[in-house]
């Protein structure tokens, strides 16, 4: 215990959060589960890429099970199999997340491989070359998906830097990411001050011991803040459908304004709440149904994304090409109606209830709980309990929601669209 005297402790119910002298954040939730889930969260998402190494996080995501300085790719695979554990890696524009699932009794043995992957990779040129087909497949799947395409193009158009970087390796960089790129990115970003070590179903002392022993590296470099600019990107393709995303700059993650935008999102509609349902009860669905003669061939949902220094909020529309203009205008008019005060007490209560239910249900899975705990701790150094979060949602007022709608109505817009765009308006026509 003497070695922990300089740590800063914060305990939230069963959750414990500590900060080691190295800058590493350590969090745990002891739920006495027979299965432990350990996550390493790193501020190393695609926003930290530069023009010289665009796509490096895509390669790192795929290279997570390759040879390290302490274990070969074969040993990692067989070692995890021997103890019935699994290791997965996901990434976002903000974070890289390494997640290990193992039996509680095998915690120490399984952690060896997670530690190797996150602290001591040893990139080999021939292994990197073998990843090229997987990179191309990922990129091809993303390019053929309108849903992924409009989201990637929206970020590219919305920001001048950082958040404009794609989650996928751009075409001109496929095959050009070298071992030097990977090593330099790893050295700059995979440092203790930019990491959080999070454990579920394991004692805080055990996680702290691992953090003190293996995650004590120098401080890395930061990154410039994202600069919102607004704009438009259009991808013309065949087919009879149009996918369009229209957004403004939203709110920073964890802020009161972000709660207001989330409530507004539920108010407008975020998709069916009944499996294979029509979503006809949402305000957006109701308004676009009146704007077209083919109401069952269109859909509209509210869109929201929050980041550490910015965010996006808007509407996502899918419609027949011939009715795209009418549907997009109708969706915008619905947000304008809210901005003008078309909001009842029942509407507000329903939206807040849906948001609280969505949030609480996301914590029912170990994956959702680990992500919530890790992202909160890494961004703020503390963890807000579910009770605190739901109280902050319940505190959102009708004026907060109206203000959020007005921001969308009056702010500079960003638009991305994909499909047969002959009848799709440009952003400056809306």
Automatic annotation (TrEMBL):
Gene3D superfamilies: Metalloenzyme, LuxS/M16 peptidase-like. Keywords: Mitochondrion, Transit peptide. It comes from the Eukaryota. It is found in: Mitochondrion. It holds the Pfam family Peptidase_M16. GO terms for molecular function: metal ion binding. Residues 176-355 form the Peptidase M16 C-terminal domain. Residues 26-171 form the Peptidase M16 N-terminal domain. This is Cytochrome b-c1 complex subunit 2, mitochondrial-like. It comes from Sinocyclocheilus rhinocerous.
């Amino acid at each position: 215990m003497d070695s922990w005297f300089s740590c800063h402790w914060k305990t939230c119910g069963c959750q414990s959060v500590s900060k080691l002298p190295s800058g590493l954040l350590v969090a745990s939730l002891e739920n006495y589960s027979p299965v432990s889930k350990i996550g390493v969260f790193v501020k190393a998402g695609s926003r930290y890429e530069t023009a010289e190494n665009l796509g490096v996080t895509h390669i790192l995501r795929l290279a997570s099970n390759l040879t390290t300085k302490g274990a070969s790719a074969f040993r990692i695979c067989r070692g995890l199999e021997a103890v019935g554990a699994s290791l997965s890696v996901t990434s976002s524009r903000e974070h890289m997340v390494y997640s290990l699932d193992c039996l509680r009794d095998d915690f120490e043995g399984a952690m060896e491989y997670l530690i190797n992957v996150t602290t001591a990779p040893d990139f080999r040129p021939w292994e990197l070359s073998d990843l090229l087909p997987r990179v191309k497949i990922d990129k091809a799947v993303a390019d053929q998906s309108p849903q992924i395409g409009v989201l990637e193009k929206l970020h590219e158009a919305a920001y001048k830097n950082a958040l404009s970087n794609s989650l996928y390796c751009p075409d001109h960089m496929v095959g050009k990411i070298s071992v030097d790129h990977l090593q330099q990115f790893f050295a700059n970003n995979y440092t203790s001050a930019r990491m959080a070590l999070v454990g579920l179903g394991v004692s805080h002392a055990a996680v702290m011991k691992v953090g003190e022993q293996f995650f004590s590296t120098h401080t890395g470099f930061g990154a410039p803040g994202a600069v919102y600019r607004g704009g438009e990107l259009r991808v013309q393709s065949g087919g009879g459908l149009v996918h369009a995303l229209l957004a403004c700059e939203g709110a920073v993650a964890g802020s009161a304004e972000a709660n207001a935008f989330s409530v507004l999102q539920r108010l407008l509609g975020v998709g069916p709440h009944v499996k294979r349902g029509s979503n006809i009860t949402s305000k957006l669905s109701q308004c676009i149904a009146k704007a077209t003669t083919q109401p069952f061939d269109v859909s509209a949902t509210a869109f929201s994304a929050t980041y550490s220094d910015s965010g996006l909020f808007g509407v996502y529309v899918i419609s027949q090409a011939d009715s795209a203009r009418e549907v997009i205008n109708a969706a915008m008019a619905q947000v304008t109606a809210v901005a003008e005060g078309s909001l009842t007490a029942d509407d507000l209560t329903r939206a807040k209830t849906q948001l609280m239910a969505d949030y609480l249900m996301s914590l029912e899975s170990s994956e959702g709980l680990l992500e919530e705990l890790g992202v909160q701790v890494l961004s703020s150094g503390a963890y807000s309990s579910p009770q605190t979060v739901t109280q902050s949602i319940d505190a959102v007022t009708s004026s907060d929601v109206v203000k959020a709608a007005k921001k969308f109505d009056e702010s500079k817009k960003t638009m991305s669209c994909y499909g047969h765009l002959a009848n799709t308006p440009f952003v400056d026509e809306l």
